[in-house]
Amino acid sequence: MTALGVNLAVLAAMSMGMSQIKRDEVVVFYPTCAHLDSQGKTWIVPIHGVIFEPEGNSLKRTLLVEGIRRQLDVESGTPEAEVFDRRARLFLVDHERGKEISIRLSSRTYRVGKSGANGHFAANVRLSVAEANRLLGDRPTDGSWGSFQAITRAGDDRQFEGRFQCVGNSGLSVVSDIDDTIKDSQVTDRRVLLRNTFLKDFKPVSGMADAYGRAAERGVVFHYVSASPWQLYGPLAEFCRREGFPPGSFHLKHVRPTDSSALSLLGSQEATKLRAIEPILATFPGRRFILIGDSGEQDPEIFGKVAREHPDQIAAICIRNVTDEAAQSDRFRAAFQGIAPGLWMLFRQPTECESRMRELLRARR
Fold first, then answer.
1. N or C: more exposed end of the chain, with fewer CB within 10 A?
2. What are the beta bridge partners of residue 111?
3. Domain end among 133, 166, 199
């Protein structure tokens, strides 16, 4: 077949909704939140995912992983080495550029974008309220989840499923950090943080899953925002499922081991978190938000900035005090300058944070 014939065949396959996903490639979809359009007649469903070929042989990626292995002094044949190998494989992949991805949602097929250099693709698809009602079996409310599937090639029976949550234009949402807020990471010690990230099974902050779960039962929606790289989405999502945290959208950090972004693996969180939080607030201007984080890194400063810029949307800020600082310290005075004292709080026990969420839920009645 000539080059022209090949190109025409590809275009024809795309027009029929056929897949460009090869048998040695994997697609991962990340959970997102759908919102109603301004007229309340259509759900806008964000689709976000990545396509890659597992265990690529890039020298740069291999050297990066070996550097981390040496830094952490991983001993072969130990349980820690097994965990490291599993996590390291998540970074040793070939991200596929220029792949057209199509999905099947309800009874329709949608193209959801072409993957970029980092393998990620993103698009919004529109789903009528009537279609959503049929798909979900009832009128969608906060917390209702829908699913879709990637379209694979004929004879490829693998299923790559994605999920989205229908979130109303009003209500209460939580934007939650992950490290040292719901997962015990010890971010104040970089070496310990790396070991907990690459060598250990993730451990929960005791009591936080119960607090979040009870809030979700009352209709609170969750968004998990972290400076952890997207490569760790799988272990993080499994951790949340295993420990009983309510499902929610994920917003992580883009890191490519083969370029300079790898140097920021554990770098500043401000730009990453602001880029994630700002679109959430913009998508749901009628909702109120509780920002929950910890004092280990920059959450107080980031959340204070967000609250000053969006005073009508931020209902509360809850900071888990992992640094044993006083609320009257210079740091917190600067972080929350211009913010009413009653809007923010430090907590040590999850029950304190849960009490604040309950107060806000009662106030909405």
1. C
2. 102
3. 166
Do 122 and 175 have their domain in common?
no
Domain final position from 148, 166, 184: 166
| Residue 121 and residue 186 share a domain | no
Q: With contact defined as beta carbons under 8 Å apart, do 82 and 199 qualify? A: no
With vertex at residue 86, the alpha carbon angle to CA 82 and CA 92, rounded to the nearest 5 degrees, is: 130
Residue 8's pLDDT is 40
pLDDT classification of 354: cutoffs 50, 70, 90: very high
Q: What is the pLDDT of residue 15?
A: 44
Average pLDDT over residues 323-330: 96
**Are residues 267 and 345 located together in one domain of the fold?**
yes
Parent domain of 29: 23-54+95-166
Query: Each residue of 260-293: pLDDT tens digit?
Result: 444 445 556 788 899 999 999 999 999 999 999 9
Query: In this predicted model, which residue has the larger pLDDT, 1 or 97?
Result: 97
Decide if pLDDT at 5 tops 50.
no
Q: Based on the number of CB atoms within 10 Å of its own CB, is 253 exposed (0-12), middle (13-18) or buried (19 or more)?
A: buried
d(CA 44, CA 125): 6
Residue pair 103/118 in contact (Cβ under 8 Å)? The answer is no
Q: What gap in Å lies between CA 82 and CA 80, rounded to an integer?
A: 5
Q: Tell whether 284 is covered by a domain.
A: yes
Number of C-alpha atoms within 13 angstroms, CB side, residue 358?
Answer: 9
Quote the pTM value. 0.90
Count of other CB atoms within 10 angstroms of residue 258: 18
Q: Are residues 128 and 213 in the same domain?
A: no
Average pLDDT over residues 220-227: 96
Indicate if 177 and 126 belong to the same structural domain. Answer: no
Query: Strands 144-150 and 161-166, how do they pair?
Result: antiparallel
Q: How far is CA 19 from the centre of its chain?
A: 26
Task: Please report, to the nearest 10 degrees, the dihedral formed by the alpha carbons of residues 222, 227, 229, 233 taken in order.
Answer: -20
CA angle 134, 244, 190 (to 5 degrees): 125
